[in-house]
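[Solved] Which block belongs to which protein?

Original post:
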Amino acid sequence: MKIALMDSGIGLLPAAAAMRRLRPDADLVLSSDPTTMPWGPRTPEGVTELALGCARAAAAHRPAALIVACNTASVHALPALRAELEPALPVIGTVPAIKPAAAGGGPIAIWATPATTGSPYQRGLIHDFADGVEVTEVPCPGLADAVQHADDEGIDAAVAAAAARTPRDVTTVVLGCTHYELVADRIRAAVQQPDAPPIVLHGSAGAVAAQALRRIGADPFPPDGPVTPGALTVILGGREAALPEVALTYAEGVLLAPVAPTRA
């Protein structure tokens, strides 16, 4: 079984790691184009063009499913991706985990890129799934880029700024950008208030990986007995490459590293 994932950069690592945990025997194809980041400020047409490029590069490897592990691409490019690739290749988008977060009653905060924050797309999800729940939309300028480059100072500054915009009484934070899941512990530490119950964080990686398996009718757990880890193919800007070194600064990248290709 082969599963492909695409994103602008290393934001696909959380979903890839979730898939590796669910099905360690699955071959993974990771397609991204980090030289074109960030995608958030681009026009919808520009995002769609870039997303189609990443998707086509992944589809050439004949996966059973394609996960669009990027909120921005899911917002702007999902219809075009599905129109071109389905039904031959199921395409699974990423949706911020607003519905499960709101089920806890709130108050909740949604951390997202400035382009997504306040967008009709996100407001629609809030209306549909968090009606009656106190919701604060928190823009996080610079955080995705800092995570992409493992810029510790940049991450700390962006997280601190977003935490300052987050009401002190929130009980739940939705991570509305796939890159943010790579620094979930740092976000939790910044938002957690002394003597308050532990903050609940909601990402999308686990749910997206599970949905991809459901779409292709695959068991979400590996078979009994020893399992040979699946292969990992990395595509950067349409060309096969090694797993970027920056990925190894995160636990999700390290989980994938033992099966990373050695070619440059």
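(Second protein starts here: sequence line, then its structure tokens.)
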Amino acid sequence: MTTATSRHSERRISPVFAGILAVTAVTGWATWTGFAQQPGVAVFLFVTAAWIVSLCLHEYAHARTALHSGDISVGAKGYLTLNPLKYTHALLSIVLPVIFVIMGGIGLPGGAVFIERGRIQGRWKHSLISAAGPLTNVLFAVVCTAPFWLDALDGVPSDFRFALAFLALLQVTAALLNFLPVPGLDGYGVIEPWLSYGIRRQVEPFAPFGLLFVFALLWLPAVNGVFFDVVDSLLKSLGISDFETYCGQELYRFWQGSNEFCSAAP
């Protein structure tokens, strides 16, 4: 029998997540104040920690929506604690996305939490569960870009502005990739409940390879160019320039040495 105490513990915020949140706050402060002797290291830790926070919130959104839709098993699995170590695919959800940020500056969609779909009735609920994750990235992107489109960055140190711009870039790429209607991604999960049984059976074998297919396409210069043109257009409409995202990524990759072009920025 499940007790009230155990149900409460299933929803208590994990110390692991609290620690990551603390790293985000401390390194954000260090980037803002210039306290760190090596600003690139502070930017790296700030953006990486904030990115992990967004990944945890992405998975939490899936689980929380599933809970309210009828899958009460998500609590016992630890999904409501925001602990990245509790997710079904910690490698896909946390480690690989961070590696892709370091290597290419792309917000890789994470792995999904395991939802017991048989407990959930109604196509709209299934669609909303799939949409909840990338909508969290959209919300995170709005928060990151708000200081830019609200013109609230007067006097803000350039390093912090660049870091925030790069973090916004990651959130926008994650949202766009997640919403693609490709098997294995959340975008397909949104439309899947509305497809016929026959189509779903035909598509199902391709789901494990959907993400690999997308990233194979992104290696093609023409496709990559179109994708980042869309990303840049969205960021520009939100007040973030190519220069700011470029310098943010250059600061993030501190091991490559300082960029005099960005260092001279006001």
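Accepted answer:
You had them paired correctly. Confirming on the second one: Residues 39-69 form the longest helix (31 residues).
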